[in-house]
Amino acid sequence: AFMDVLTEPLYILPDCSIFSCRPVQGFCFPFFTPTGRRSYASEIDQIGSKAVLITGCDSGFGFSLAKHLHSKGFIVFAGCLFKDKGEAGSQELDNMKSERMRTIQLNVCNSQETERAVEHVGASLKDPQKGLWGLVNNAGVSTFGDIEFTSMETYKEVAEVNLWGTVQTTKAFLPLIRRAKGRVVNISSMMGRMGSPARSSYCITKFGVEAFSDCLRYEMHPQGVKVCVVEPGNFIGATNLYTPERIKAIAEKMWKEIPEIVRKDYGRKYFDEQIAKMESYCNSGSPDTSPVINSITHALTSSSPYARYHPMDYYWWLRVQIMTHMPAAISDRIYIY
Ligand SMILES: NC(=O)c1ccc[n+]([C@@H]2O[C@H](COP(=O)([O-])OP(=O)(O)OC[C@H]3O[C@@H](n4cnc5c(N)ncnc54)[C@H](OP(=O)(O)O)[C@@H]3O)[C@@H](O)[C@H]2O)c1
């Protein structure tokens, strides 16, 4: 029964209402957290005059976060990949017709668009000398597939958005963030803490985001800027990161591109089994993104935010702890082999 607890996904979030000191974490130990230091009781002042920029607001976490931070009183710059094409997400944000909700065209891989976004945000701030309070690097893409099935082109495409997009956007906005002694919140993943079979192209980008965030946190500490990482578990059911159509399209393209010798060695049966596993993983995620949204909000509003947030259910929290703290001989045996 003990092994079942470790290895069977339990898609249940613990009742966080009893953990009043850390209301936003999916799984937590209140006695490690002195009351009053890390709670909403010590929120930052004057949210209404503070502005945040979020990338990837066309859908998913970014879209919900833009609305949530707006409802809390922030001035929100919502970066959208396809604002210029009038995609539904950016249109819905525009339709709010609020002075505090401003969508901007921003492909995080495009340096010109990034520079234009910095100029636009700088020019829109009431007092540019007071800077921009928050940057949330949320834009991301994902894919899957065994290492031998994944083309170099795919590795580079995912890294371009998740890793280099995060680095480029952060570097561009840091002068404004430093002026505000504000916050950088990077959306990583539980896959930024532990590897997983068939997820290498995604994992390496999120491990990169984690390393970048740690270095940035050390460098920004003397400047008064706080850097936080949010590591969501499986919320795929609630966002557009994977849809059944997308999995099918990735699988078809991948099978065609796999080198002949690899295709023969592994065989179509093994390949189809991997795709089925991915489909069932995607169907198992939590449909409620509020733990992620609350974690990001805490990182932006608490006077004493965490370096890392782990909004995830009990099964994945325990798995991350075991994978990162136990010898590989034990953790691999429990979860991988
Ligand atoms: N959902 C989960 O279970 C989960 C778990 C852990 C971590 N995450 C992370 O959470 C973040 C948000 O993902 P999500 O789950 O909310 O998925 P999502 O609904 O697909 O949101 C990602 C957003 O990023 C946008 N985007 C993609 N490429 C971009 C680019 N080059 N420039 C600017 N925006 C770009 C997408 O635009 P389009 O829709 O127009 O393509 C989309 O709006 C990602 O960093 C992801 O890795 C998600």
Automatic annotation (TrEMBL):
<dbReference type="GO" id="GO:0003858">
    <property type="term" value="F:3-hydroxybutyrate dehydrogenase activity"/>
</dbReference>
<dbReference type="GO" id="GO:0005743">
    <property type="term" value="C:mitochondrial inner membrane"/>
</dbReference>
<comment type="similarity">
    <text>Belongs to the short-chain dehydrogenases/reductases (SDR) family.</text>
</comment>
<dbReference type="InterPro" id="IPR002347">
    <property type="entry name" value="SDR_fam"/>
</dbReference>
<comment type="subunit">
    <text>Homotetramer.</text>
</comment>
<dbReference type="InterPro" id="IPR020904">
    <property type="entry name" value="Sc_DH/Rdtase_CS"/>
</dbReference>
<keyword id="KW-0560">Oxidoreductase</keyword>
<keyword id="KW-0809">Transit peptide</keyword>
<dbReference type="GO" id="GO:0005759">
    <property type="term" value="C:mitochondrial matrix"/>
</dbReference>
<keyword id="KW-0443">Lipid metabolism</keyword>
<dbReference type="GO" id="GO:0008202">
    <property type="term" value="P:steroid metabolic process"/>
</dbReference>
<dbReference type="Pfam" id="PF00106">
    <property type="entry name" value="adh_short"/>
</dbReference>
<keyword id="KW-0999">Mitochondrion inner membrane</keyword>
<dbReference type="InterPro" id="IPR036291">
    <property type="entry name" value="NAD(P)-bd_dom_sf"/>
</dbReference>
<keyword id="KW-0021">Allosteric enzyme</keyword>
<keyword id="KW-0520">NAD</keyword>
<keyword id="KW-0496">Mitochondrion</keyword>
<protein>
    <recommendedName>
        <fullName>D-beta-hydroxybutyrate dehydrogenase, mitochondrial</fullName>
        <ecNumber>1.1.1.30</ecNumber>
    </recommendedName>
</protein>
<keyword id="KW-0472">Membrane</keyword>
